[in-house]
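Proteins fold reproducibly. Take a sample protein:
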Amino acid sequence: MNGALCHGRSIRVNRSHSSRAAAAAAAAAAAAGPAAAAAAAAAAAAGGGGSWYNRTDASLCSALEKIFNATAREAQQRAAACCPCPSLSKRKRGVHTPAAAGAAAGTAAAAEAAARKIIIRGLDAHCTENALYRHFIPFGDIIETRLGAGSKGTVIFVDAAAAANAQQCMDGAALGTARISVELASAAAASAAAEEDGCSRGKRWHGSSAAAAAAPAAAAAAIATAPAAAETVSWQEDTSRLNLSLYQQQQQQQQQQLLLLQQQFLQQQQQQALQYAQHYQQQQEAAWRRRETGDTIEGEETAAKEAKLSGGLLFDTDPCLIPSELLSRCMYTATAIEMQHTMERHIYNTLLPCQLSLPRGKGDTFAAVSIEDELAAAGAALAAALRSKLQQKVLKGLPLHPPELEQLYVEETEVETAPFLF
């Protein structure tokens, strides 16, 4: 790269003395063989720990890359010598395999998966999954490569024959700077099962011998403790009956306590409901008394105001005989104007043939009135309301409609002819 163009400029590359020595040692080790390459890599790694692809020293990375390339070429040569026809290890497509029934199918599938998987131990600390793939891909198609803890890795092939060839050729070979041991997963599982079976057999043998030795002593002890055991059984039966009776008594006591609590709760609810009803009744009675007292006081105040405004002229005269037009303007109070019409009491007293009684207590009801009287009272109230509205418009100076002008003319005519009637 010395003198090459980079971003339009010619660059210059220099090498330090340490990088030159490490690169020369790595090149010599790669040319000498895998064992020498491992020694060279170990010597290069002595300068500092860590993964080689995280190093900032490009010469060390280059040396390790050359070592892995050399071991990968050696693995390719081993694969070519072991299986000269790589097409046999290719995946077969379109082959029909009859499915086994039940547990036989699962067992066959598990055995086939274990036969296609190999376990590699003793990997280099600088080994990666890519390097593992490059070393074992010459033996056949690979499904998965994985690195585990403790310098251990696994490779899963498509074909079981490829896994067997890889185990046979790569066992004890060099991968990077270390020598590896390759084992089929099925063989590892079989050895683990055999070891576990041996341990279990030893335990069973020891248990059976100990049991045979202790059998006479156990029989003698059983004969000696037979009466005590009978007494213990009878005592246990009596204890179980006593416990059952105590449990039943406790249940009955709990049920009685629960019933008492429920009764107390119901009594409290009834007392609260009674207190609420009494309080509500007292409030209603107080409201009726306040309303009756207020109506009485309001009536007395109204009578006093009317007597004061009229100057005592109408003291001996029935108000029903006096038209509202002859009363003074002060009688049209604001409360009366905001309601239906002015001087409501004069109109109702003259129109209704009977007196209406408003409820003033709990037992009072409305007096019975016929439908004709109610219609007449409603019509009179409506006419009075219209007349009051017309008077308000006249006082405020608002424009009047033709029917209102005609009604105003009729009322003025009646007022003008009223003195001649008396």
Notes: DSSP finds twelve helices and eight strands in the chain.
